[in-house]
Amino acid sequence: MDSFLIRGGTRLKGKIEISGSKNSALPIVAACLLAEGKTTLRGVPRLSDIDSMTKLIGELGCHVYRHEPEGGNTADDSSAAHHPPALNGALDIEVRDEKLSEARYDIVKTMRASICVLGPLLAKRGRAVVSIPGGCAIGDRPVDLHVRGLQKLGATFRTENGNIVGEVRGRLKGCRMYLGGAQGPTVLGTINVLCAAALAEGETVLVGAACEPEVSDCADLLIKMGAKIKGQGTPEIRIEGVDRLTGAEHRIIPDRIEAGTFMIAAAITNGEIELKNCNLDHLIAVVDRLEEIGVRIERENGTVYVSSSRRLNTVEMTTQPFPGFPTDLQAQLMGLLCLGDGISVITERIFPDRFLHVGELNRMGARVRKEGPTAIIQGVKELQGASVMASDLRASAALVLAGLVARGTTRIDRVYHIDRGYEKIEQKLAAVGAEIERVKEK
Ligand code: EPU
Protein backbone atom coordinates (compact mmCIF):
# COMPACT_ATOMS: atom_id res chain seq x y z
CA MET A 1 0.00 0.00 0.00
CA ASP A 2 1.46 3.35 -1.05
CA SER A 3 1.87 6.30 1.32
CA PHE A 4 2.28 10.04 0.84
CA LEU A 5 5.00 12.04 2.52
CA ILE A 6 4.13 15.73 2.69
CA ARG A 7 6.41 18.45 3.98
CA GLY A 8 4.09 21.27 4.98
CA GLY A 9 4.49 25.00 4.76
CA THR A 10 4.70 25.80 1.04
CA ARG A 11 2.38 28.44 -0.40
CA LEU A 12 0.78 26.85 -3.46
CA LYS A 13 0.91 28.89 -6.65
CA GLY A 14 0.10 27.94 -10.22
CA LYS A 15 -2.42 26.24 -12.49
CA ILE A 16 -4.35 23.03 -11.95
CA GLU A 17 -6.57 21.37 -14.50
CA ILE A 18 -9.65 19.67 -13.09
CA SER A 19 -10.40 16.15 -14.30
CA GLY A 20 -13.75 14.79 -15.43
CA SER A 21 -16.12 13.95 -12.60
CA LYS A 22 -15.70 10.52 -11.01
CA ASN A 23 -19.25 10.52 -9.68
CA SER A 24 -20.62 11.44 -13.09
CA ALA A 25 -18.47 8.99 -15.01
CA LEU A 26 -19.29 5.95 -12.84
CA PRO A 27 -23.07 5.84 -13.44
CA ILE A 28 -22.58 7.03 -17.02
CA VAL A 29 -20.31 4.07 -17.79
CA ALA A 30 -23.01 1.80 -16.31
CA ALA A 31 -25.70 3.57 -18.37
CA CYS A 32 -23.86 2.46 -21.53
CA LEU A 33 -25.41 -0.98 -20.89
CA LEU A 34 -28.67 0.54 -22.17
CA ALA A 35 -27.48 1.46 -25.66
CA GLU A 36 -27.12 -0.39 -28.91
CA GLY A 37 -23.92 0.48 -30.78
CA LYS A 38 -20.83 2.28 -29.57
CA THR A 39 -20.79 5.10 -27.01
CA THR A 40 -17.72 7.33 -26.82
CA LEU A 41 -17.06 9.10 -23.53
CA ARG A 42 -14.53 11.89 -23.21
CA GLY A 43 -13.08 13.29 -20.01
CA VAL A 44 -13.38 10.02 -18.09
CA PRO A 45 -10.76 10.31 -15.33
CA ARG A 46 -8.12 7.64 -14.84
CA LEU A 47 -9.02 6.30 -11.41
CA SER A 48 -9.16 2.92 -9.75
CA ASP A 49 -12.95 3.22 -9.30
CA ILE A 50 -13.35 3.78 -13.04
CA ASP A 51 -11.20 0.68 -13.66
CA SER A 52 -13.54 -1.29 -11.37
CA MET A 53 -16.61 -0.06 -13.24
CA THR A 54 -15.17 -0.82 -16.68
CA LYS A 55 -14.15 -4.27 -15.43
CA LEU A 56 -17.70 -4.82 -14.21
CA ILE A 57 -19.38 -3.85 -17.48
CA GLY A 58 -16.70 -5.87 -19.30
CA GLU A 59 -17.88 -8.92 -17.36
CA LEU A 60 -21.42 -7.98 -18.37
CA GLY A 61 -20.60 -8.34 -22.07
CA CYS A 62 -19.33 -4.87 -22.99
CA HIS A 63 -16.29 -4.24 -25.12
CA VAL A 64 -14.38 -1.37 -23.49
CA TYR A 65 -11.51 0.41 -25.22
CA ARG A 66 -9.48 3.34 -23.89
CA HIS A 67 -7.96 5.39 -26.72
CA GLU A 68 -4.41 6.61 -26.55
CA PRO A 69 -4.00 9.97 -24.84
CA GLU A 70 -4.49 12.82 -27.28
CA GLY A 71 -1.05 14.06 -28.25
CA GLY A 72 0.29 10.71 -29.35
CA ASN A 73 1.51 9.05 -26.15
CA THR A 74 0.78 5.41 -25.59
CA ALA A 75 -2.26 4.49 -23.51
CA ASP A 76 -0.50 2.65 -20.72
CA ASP A 77 -0.69 3.98 -17.19
CA SER A 78 2.93 5.04 -16.82
CA SER A 79 2.85 7.48 -19.73
CA ALA A 80 -0.67 8.60 -18.82
CA ALA A 81 0.85 10.03 -15.66
CA HIS A 82 2.58 12.72 -17.71
CA HIS A 83 -0.21 14.27 -19.72
CA PRO A 84 -2.94 16.64 -18.52
CA PRO A 85 -6.42 15.22 -17.83
CA ALA A 86 -7.97 17.02 -20.81
CA LEU A 87 -5.83 14.81 -23.00
CA ASN A 88 -6.98 11.52 -21.49
CA GLY A 89 -7.92 9.19 -24.30
CA ALA A 90 -11.65 8.73 -24.96
CA LEU A 91 -13.39 5.60 -23.70
CA ASP A 92 -15.39 3.54 -26.20
CA ILE A 93 -18.03 1.21 -24.82
CA GLU A 94 -20.12 -1.20 -26.86
CA VAL A 95 -22.44 -3.95 -25.66
CA ARG A 96 -21.53 -7.19 -27.47
CA ASP A 97 -23.26 -9.85 -25.37
CA GLU A 98 -26.46 -9.45 -23.35
CA LYS A 99 -26.68 -12.91 -21.80
CA LEU A 100 -24.96 -12.08 -18.51
CA SER A 101 -26.60 -10.08 -15.75
CA GLU A 102 -24.60 -10.67 -12.56
CA ALA A 103 -22.47 -8.10 -10.73
CA ARG A 104 -20.10 -10.16 -8.57
CA TYR A 105 -19.39 -9.45 -4.90
CA ASP A 106 -15.65 -9.18 -5.67
CA ILE A 107 -16.25 -5.97 -7.57
CA VAL A 108 -19.28 -4.62 -5.67
CA LYS A 109 -17.39 -4.87 -2.35
CA THR A 110 -14.63 -2.63 -3.69
CA MET A 111 -17.01 -0.05 -5.12
CA ARG A 112 -20.56 0.70 -4.04
CA ALA A 113 -21.30 2.52 -7.30
CA SER A 114 -21.56 -0.98 -8.84
CA ILE A 115 -25.24 -0.70 -7.83
CA CYS A 116 -25.61 1.58 -10.89
CA VAL A 117 -25.85 -1.45 -13.18
CA LEU A 118 -29.11 -2.52 -11.50
CA GLY A 119 -31.49 -0.18 -13.38
CA PRO A 120 -29.83 -0.55 -16.81
CA LEU A 121 -29.70 -4.36 -16.56
CA LEU A 122 -33.35 -4.65 -15.54
CA ALA A 123 -34.53 -2.30 -18.28
CA LYS A 124 -32.42 -3.84 -21.06
CA ARG A 125 -31.99 -7.50 -20.07
CA GLY A 126 -35.00 -8.07 -17.79
CA ARG A 127 -32.83 -9.52 -15.04
CA ALA A 128 -30.14 -8.31 -12.66
CA VAL A 129 -28.21 -10.00 -9.90
CA VAL A 130 -26.19 -7.50 -7.90
CA SER A 131 -24.35 -8.36 -4.74
CA ILE A 132 -25.75 -6.28 -1.86
CA PRO A 133 -23.21 -3.54 -1.08
CA GLY A 134 -22.11 -3.71 2.55
CA GLY A 135 -21.58 -0.73 4.86
CA CYS A 136 -18.57 1.47 4.29
CA ALA A 137 -16.38 3.88 6.22
CA ILE A 138 -18.88 6.72 5.88
CA GLY A 139 -21.91 4.83 7.20
CA ASP A 140 -24.54 2.19 6.39
CA ARG A 141 -25.42 3.31 2.88
CA PRO A 142 -28.56 1.29 2.14
CA VAL A 143 -29.97 0.78 -1.38
CA ASP A 144 -33.65 0.45 -0.42
CA LEU A 145 -34.65 3.56 -2.38
CA HIS A 146 -33.10 2.18 -5.58
CA VAL A 147 -35.03 -1.05 -5.14
CA ARG A 148 -38.30 0.71 -4.24
CA GLY A 149 -38.13 2.95 -7.28
CA LEU A 150 -37.47 0.04 -9.62
CA GLN A 151 -40.28 -1.97 -7.98
CA LYS A 152 -42.66 0.87 -8.78
CA LEU A 153 -41.69 0.45 -12.43
CA GLY A 154 -42.72 -3.22 -12.17
CA ALA A 155 -39.51 -5.09 -11.30
CA THR A 156 -39.71 -7.77 -8.62
CA PHE A 157 -36.91 -8.40 -6.16
CA ARG A 158 -35.73 -11.08 -3.78
CA THR A 159 -32.50 -11.51 -1.88
CA GLU A 160 -30.54 -14.67 -2.40
CA ASN A 161 -27.12 -15.55 -0.92
CA GLY A 162 -26.17 -11.92 -0.36
CA ASN A 163 -27.44 -10.82 -3.77
CA ILE A 164 -30.35 -8.67 -4.86
CA VAL A 165 -32.06 -10.61 -7.63
CA GLY A 166 -34.32 -8.41 -9.77
CA GLU A 167 -36.57 -9.54 -12.58
CA VAL A 168 -38.97 -7.94 -15.03
CA ARG A 169 -41.79 -9.72 -16.75
CA GLY A 170 -42.21 -8.14 -20.17
CA ARG A 171 -41.30 -4.46 -20.03
CA LEU A 172 -41.02 -1.96 -17.19
CA LYS A 173 -43.99 0.42 -16.96
CA GLY A 174 -43.71 4.12 -16.27
CA CYS A 175 -45.54 5.70 -13.33
CA ARG A 176 -45.45 8.74 -11.05
CA MET A 177 -43.41 8.09 -7.92
CA TYR A 178 -41.80 9.78 -4.93
CA LEU A 179 -38.10 8.91 -4.69
CA GLY A 180 -36.92 10.69 -1.54
CA GLY A 181 -35.86 9.01 1.70
CA ALA A 182 -35.30 9.96 5.32
CA GLN A 183 -32.09 11.90 4.47
CA GLY A 184 -33.59 13.49 1.35
CA PRO A 185 -33.03 12.51 -2.27
CA THR A 186 -30.65 9.80 -3.45
CA VAL A 187 -28.17 10.58 -6.21
CA LEU A 188 -27.38 7.12 -7.55
CA GLY A 189 -30.93 5.92 -6.77
CA THR A 190 -32.32 8.71 -8.98
CA ILE A 191 -29.89 7.76 -11.75
CA ASN A 192 -30.76 4.04 -11.49
CA VAL A 193 -34.49 4.71 -11.80
CA LEU A 194 -33.94 7.34 -14.50
CA CYS A 195 -31.95 4.85 -16.60
CA ALA A 196 -34.62 2.18 -16.19
CA ALA A 197 -37.47 4.59 -16.95
CA ALA A 198 -35.75 5.67 -20.19
CA LEU A 199 -36.65 2.27 -21.69
CA ALA A 200 -39.94 1.72 -19.80
CA GLU A 201 -43.34 1.79 -21.45
CA GLY A 202 -45.08 5.16 -21.03
CA GLU A 203 -44.35 8.14 -18.84
CA THR A 204 -42.45 8.14 -15.55
CA VAL A 205 -42.42 11.15 -13.25
CA LEU A 206 -39.75 11.13 -10.53
CA VAL A 207 -40.79 13.43 -7.69
CA GLY A 208 -38.17 14.18 -5.04
CA ALA A 209 -35.39 13.41 -7.53
CA ALA A 210 -31.80 14.38 -6.73
CA CYS A 211 -30.76 17.65 -8.43
CA GLU A 212 -27.00 17.00 -8.44
CA PRO A 213 -25.12 17.94 -11.64
CA GLU A 214 -24.13 14.27 -11.97
CA VAL A 215 -27.82 13.34 -12.42
CA SER A 216 -28.18 15.98 -15.14
CA ASP A 217 -25.01 14.76 -16.84
CA CYS A 218 -26.36 11.22 -17.04
CA ALA A 219 -29.73 12.50 -18.30
CA ASP A 220 -27.90 14.54 -20.96
CA LEU A 221 -26.10 11.41 -22.19
CA LEU A 222 -29.38 9.44 -22.24
CA ILE A 223 -31.01 12.21 -24.31
CA LYS A 224 -28.14 11.97 -26.81
CA MET A 225 -28.85 8.21 -26.94
CA GLY A 226 -32.48 8.95 -27.85
CA ALA A 227 -34.21 9.14 -24.45
CA LYS A 228 -36.97 11.67 -23.84
CA ILE A 229 -36.23 13.36 -20.53
CA LYS A 230 -37.25 16.75 -19.13
CA GLY A 231 -36.63 18.41 -15.79
CA GLN A 232 -33.19 16.96 -14.96
CA GLY A 233 -31.50 19.19 -12.40
CA THR A 234 -34.88 19.83 -10.69
CA PRO A 235 -36.72 17.68 -8.12
CA GLU A 236 -39.24 16.55 -10.76
CA ILE A 237 -37.93 14.61 -13.75
CA ARG A 238 -40.28 13.49 -16.55
CA ILE A 239 -39.27 10.59 -18.73
CA GLU A 240 -41.23 9.38 -21.75
CA GLY A 241 -40.00 5.82 -22.31
CA VAL A 242 -38.61 4.87 -25.74
CA ASP A 243 -38.15 1.45 -27.38
CA ARG A 244 -34.41 1.66 -27.88
CA LEU A 245 -31.37 3.78 -27.15
CA THR A 246 -28.35 4.01 -29.42
CA GLY A 247 -24.69 4.82 -28.77
CA ALA A 248 -23.71 8.48 -28.57
CA GLU A 249 -20.74 10.77 -27.85
CA HIS A 250 -20.49 12.65 -24.59
CA ARG A 251 -18.02 14.65 -22.49
CA ILE A 252 -18.16 14.15 -18.72
CA ILE A 253 -18.62 17.32 -16.63
CA PRO A 254 -15.68 18.62 -14.54
CA ASP A 255 -15.28 17.10 -11.09
CA ARG A 256 -16.77 19.68 -8.71
CA ILE A 257 -15.42 17.87 -5.64
CA GLU A 258 -11.87 17.79 -6.99
CA ALA A 259 -12.21 21.51 -7.83
CA GLY A 260 -13.50 22.29 -4.33
CA THR A 261 -10.63 20.33 -2.79
CA PHE A 262 -8.05 22.38 -4.72
CA MET A 263 -9.86 25.61 -3.80
CA ILE A 264 -9.41 24.62 -0.17
CA ALA A 265 -5.75 23.72 -0.89
CA ALA A 266 -5.23 27.30 -2.11
CA ALA A 267 -6.98 28.68 0.96
CA ILE A 268 -5.22 26.53 3.56
CA THR A 269 -1.74 27.35 2.22
CA ASN A 270 -2.55 31.06 1.70
CA GLY A 271 -1.77 30.39 -1.92
CA GLU A 272 -2.96 31.44 -5.37
CA ILE A 273 -4.30 28.75 -7.66
CA GLU A 274 -5.85 29.00 -11.14
CA LEU A 275 -8.32 26.24 -11.90
CA LYS A 276 -8.96 25.22 -15.50
CA ASN A 277 -12.03 23.16 -16.48
CA CYS A 278 -13.96 24.20 -13.36
CA ASN A 279 -17.71 24.93 -13.36
CA LEU A 280 -18.45 27.37 -10.52
CA ASP A 281 -22.22 26.95 -11.01
CA HIS A 282 -21.76 23.46 -9.57
CA LEU A 283 -19.96 24.91 -6.54
CA ILE A 284 -22.23 27.79 -5.61
CA ALA A 285 -22.63 26.84 -1.93
CA VAL A 286 -18.92 26.05 -1.60
CA VAL A 287 -17.96 29.44 -3.04
CA ASP A 288 -20.44 31.08 -0.65
CA ARG A 289 -18.92 29.42 2.43
CA LEU A 290 -15.32 30.00 1.32
CA GLU A 291 -15.97 33.68 0.58
CA GLU A 292 -17.63 34.01 3.96
CA ILE A 293 -14.42 32.93 5.67
CA GLY A 294 -12.27 35.26 3.59
CA VAL A 295 -11.13 33.28 0.53
CA ARG A 296 -11.06 35.27 -2.74
CA ILE A 297 -12.64 33.50 -5.72
CA GLU A 298 -12.88 35.11 -9.16
CA ARG A 299 -13.81 33.81 -12.58
CA GLU A 300 -12.34 35.26 -15.75
CA ASN A 301 -12.45 33.81 -19.27
CA GLY A 302 -13.18 30.30 -18.11
CA THR A 303 -10.43 30.26 -15.45
CA VAL A 304 -11.20 30.35 -11.73
CA TYR A 305 -8.71 32.17 -9.51
CA VAL A 306 -8.63 31.22 -5.82
CA SER A 307 -6.43 32.92 -3.26
CA SER A 308 -6.17 33.86 0.37
CA SER A 309 -3.61 35.82 2.28
CA ARG A 310 -4.54 35.82 5.94
CA ARG A 311 -5.90 33.75 8.80
CA LEU A 312 -9.45 32.80 7.89
CA ASN A 313 -12.73 33.52 9.69
CA THR A 314 -14.96 30.86 11.18
CA VAL A 315 -18.21 29.63 9.70
CA GLU A 316 -21.24 27.41 10.30
CA MET A 317 -22.00 24.87 7.62
CA THR A 318 -24.50 22.05 7.17
CA THR A 319 -24.12 19.51 4.37
CA GLN A 320 -27.17 19.31 2.13
CA PRO A 321 -28.25 17.88 -1.18
CA PHE A 322 -27.37 20.03 -4.22
CA PRO A 323 -27.34 23.03 -4.46
CA GLY A 324 -26.35 22.97 -0.79
CA PHE A 325 -22.84 22.32 0.52
CA PRO A 326 -21.80 18.79 -0.57
CA THR A 327 -21.00 16.10 1.97
CA ASP A 328 -18.07 15.16 -0.25
CA LEU A 329 -16.31 18.42 0.74
CA GLN A 330 -17.19 18.36 4.44
CA ALA A 331 -13.93 16.75 5.58
CA GLN A 332 -11.79 19.09 3.47
CA LEU A 333 -13.60 22.19 4.78
CA MET A 334 -13.08 20.90 8.30
CA GLY A 335 -9.35 20.66 7.61
CA LEU A 336 -9.40 24.34 6.65
CA LEU A 337 -11.52 25.44 9.62
CA CYS A 338 -9.08 23.73 12.00
CA LEU A 339 -6.91 26.81 11.38
CA GLY A 340 -9.77 29.34 11.53
CA ASP A 341 -9.76 32.28 13.91
CA GLY A 342 -12.27 30.96 16.48
CA ILE A 343 -15.01 28.32 16.65
CA SER A 344 -16.68 26.81 13.58
CA VAL A 345 -19.57 24.33 13.49
CA ILE A 346 -20.16 21.67 10.85
CA THR A 347 -23.28 19.49 10.76
CA GLU A 348 -23.39 16.43 8.52
CA ARG A 349 -26.96 15.81 7.32
CA ILE A 350 -26.30 13.34 4.47
CA PHE A 351 -24.05 10.75 6.16
CA PRO A 352 -24.26 11.56 9.91
CA ASP A 353 -21.34 9.20 10.73
CA ARG A 354 -18.95 10.63 8.15
CA PHE A 355 -16.37 11.89 10.66
CA LEU A 356 -13.46 9.43 10.53
CA HIS A 357 -11.13 12.34 9.76
CA VAL A 358 -11.80 14.00 13.14
CA GLY A 359 -9.52 11.67 15.11
CA GLU A 360 -6.72 11.93 12.55
CA LEU A 361 -6.94 15.75 12.35
CA ASN A 362 -6.78 15.88 16.15
CA ARG A 363 -3.58 13.78 16.00
CA MET A 364 -2.16 16.63 13.93
CA GLY A 365 -2.96 19.14 16.68
CA ALA A 366 -6.48 20.16 15.63
CA ARG A 367 -9.17 20.71 18.27
CA VAL A 368 -12.35 19.16 16.94
CA ARG A 369 -15.09 17.74 19.14
CA LYS A 370 -17.88 15.64 17.72
CA GLU A 371 -21.40 15.71 19.12
CA GLY A 372 -23.73 13.41 17.16
CA PRO A 373 -23.83 14.63 13.56
CA THR A 374 -22.13 17.91 14.51
CA ALA A 375 -18.45 18.79 14.82
CA ILE A 376 -17.30 21.79 16.82
CA ILE A 377 -13.99 23.06 15.59
CA GLN A 378 -11.84 25.32 17.77
CA GLY A 379 -9.34 26.92 15.42
CA VAL A 380 -5.65 26.51 16.32
CA LYS A 381 -2.67 28.54 15.12
CA GLU A 382 -0.85 25.61 13.56
CA LEU A 383 -1.09 21.91 12.78
CA GLN A 384 1.84 19.54 13.21
CA GLY A 385 2.98 16.78 10.88
CA ALA A 386 2.17 13.25 12.06
CA SER A 387 1.66 9.73 10.76
CA VAL A 388 -1.99 9.41 9.89
CA MET A 389 -4.21 6.89 8.17
CA ALA A 390 -6.42 7.44 5.15
CA SER A 391 -9.83 5.90 5.96
CA ASP A 392 -12.03 6.91 3.04
CA LEU A 393 -11.66 9.03 -0.03
CA ARG A 394 -12.69 12.46 1.20
CA ALA A 395 -11.33 12.03 4.75
CA SER A 396 -7.99 11.25 3.13
CA ALA A 397 -8.16 14.40 1.01
CA ALA A 398 -8.67 16.40 4.23
CA LEU A 399 -5.47 14.86 5.64
CA VAL A 400 -3.54 15.81 2.51
CA LEU A 401 -4.78 19.39 2.89
CA ALA A 402 -3.81 19.46 6.55
CA GLY A 403 -0.39 17.99 5.66
CA LEU A 404 0.22 20.80 3.16
CA VAL A 405 0.16 23.38 5.93
CA ALA A 406 1.34 21.37 8.95
CA ARG A 407 4.73 22.03 10.53
CA GLY A 408 7.12 19.21 9.64
CA THR A 409 6.35 16.05 7.73
CA THR A 410 3.04 14.22 7.49
CA ARG A 411 2.91 10.61 6.43
CA ILE A 412 -0.44 9.39 5.11
CA ASP A 413 -0.78 5.63 4.83
CA ARG A 414 -3.28 3.69 2.71
CA VAL A 415 -3.52 6.30 -0.04
CA TYR A 416 -5.30 3.79 -2.26
CA HIS A 417 -8.42 5.49 -0.87
CA ILE A 418 -7.30 8.74 -2.50
CA ASP A 419 -6.44 6.99 -5.77
CA ARG A 420 -10.09 5.93 -6.03
CA GLY A 421 -11.21 9.48 -6.64
CA TYR A 422 -8.40 12.00 -7.27
CA GLU A 423 -6.57 11.69 -10.57
CA LYS A 424 -2.81 12.18 -10.04
CA ILE A 425 -3.37 14.32 -6.94
CA GLU A 426 0.27 14.33 -5.89
CA GLN A 427 1.42 15.39 -9.37
CA LYS A 428 -1.17 18.17 -9.55
CA LEU A 429 -0.17 19.46 -6.09
CA ALA A 430 3.56 19.15 -6.78
CA ALA A 431 3.10 21.17 -9.97
CA VAL A 432 1.88 24.12 -7.88
CA GLY A 433 4.72 23.85 -5.39
CA ALA A 434 3.65 21.29 -2.80
CA GLU A 435 6.35 19.07 -1.37
CA ILE A 436 4.54 15.77 -1.70
CA GLU A 437 5.94 12.41 -2.63
CA ARG A 438 4.44 8.97 -3.12
CA VAL A 439 6.28 6.24 -1.31
CA LYS A 440 5.67 2.98 -3.09
CA GLU A 441 4.92 -0.16 -1.18
CA LYS A 442 8.01 -2.32 -1.09
N1 EPU B 1 -30.04 6.49 1.16
C1 EPU B 1 -31.00 5.64 1.64
N2 EPU B 1 -31.43 4.62 0.85
C2 EPU B 1 -30.96 4.44 -0.41
C3 EPU B 1 -29.99 5.33 -0.92
C4 EPU B 1 -29.56 6.35 -0.10
O1 EPU B 1 -31.44 5.77 2.78
O2 EPU B 1 -31.41 3.52 -1.09
C5 EPU B 1 -29.55 7.59 2.00
C6 EPU B 1 -28.06 7.50 2.27
O3 EPU B 1 -27.77 6.65 3.35
C7 EPU B 1 -27.71 8.94 2.53
C8 EPU B 1 -28.64 9.69 1.58
O4 EPU B 1 -29.69 8.80 1.28
O5 EPU B 1 -28.03 9.30 3.84
C9 EPU B 1 -28.02 10.17 0.30
O6 EPU B 1 -27.25 9.13 -0.30
P1 EPU B 1 -27.13 9.01 -1.87
O7 EPU B 1 -27.93 7.84 -2.32
O8 EPU B 1 -27.44 10.32 -2.50
O9 EPU B 1 -25.60 8.64 -2.06
P2 EPU B 1 -25.03 7.80 -3.27
O10 EPU B 1 -25.80 8.12 -4.47
O11 EPU B 1 -24.85 6.39 -2.87
C10 EPU B 1 -23.35 9.58 -4.18
C11 EPU B 1 -21.87 9.73 -4.32
C12 EPU B 1 -21.25 9.95 -2.95
C13 EPU B 1 -21.89 11.19 -2.33
C14 EPU B 1 -23.40 11.02 -2.25
C15 EPU B 1 -24.12 12.23 -1.71
C16 EPU B 1 -21.25 8.41 -6.25
C17 EPU B 1 -20.53 7.24 -6.81
N3 EPU B 1 -21.29 8.54 -4.92
O12 EPU B 1 -23.57 8.42 -3.39
O13 EPU B 1 -19.87 10.19 -3.20
O14 EPU B 1 -21.36 11.37 -1.04
O15 EPU B 1 -23.91 10.74 -3.58
O16 EPU B 1 -23.87 13.33 -2.50
O17 EPU B 1 -21.77 9.23 -6.99
C18 EPU B 1 -17.58 10.19 -2.74
O18 EPU B 1 -17.38 10.52 -3.91
O19 EPU B 1 -16.68 10.21 -1.87
C19 EPU B 1 -18.91 9.74 -2.34
C20 EPU B 1 -19.13 9.04 -1.24
Quick description:
The chain is 30% helix and 25% strand. It is an alpha/beta fold.
Share of residues in strands: 25-35%
The gross shape turns out to be globular
- Which stretches of 5+ consecutive residues score pLDDT under 50? 73-81
Q: Total helix count?
A: 15
Quote the average pLDDT.
94
Q: Compounds present?
A: uridine-diphosphate-2(N-acetylglucosaminyl) butyric acid
Helix content: 25-40%
Gyration radius, in Å = 21 Å
Strand order of the largest sheet: 24-25-1-26
Pairing-aware structural class of the strands and helices?
Answer: alpha/beta
Query: What is the strand tally?
Result: 26
- N-to-C CA distance: 8 Å
The main sheet comes to: 4 strands, mixed
Notes on the structure:
The protein has 15 helices and 26 strands. Helices cover 30% and strands 25% of the residues. The longest helix has 13 residues, at 213-225. Strand 24, helix 13 and strand 25 form a beta-alpha-beta unit. The chain has 442 residues and is α/β, with parallel strands linked by helices. The protein is globular. The strands form 7 sheets. A 4-stranded mixed sheet has the order 24-25-1-26. It has a 4-stranded mixed sheet with strand order 2-17-19-18. Residues 73-81 have low confidence and may be disordered. Uridine-diphosphate-2(N-acetylglucosaminyl) butyric acid binds next to helix 1, helix 6, helix 7 and helix 13.
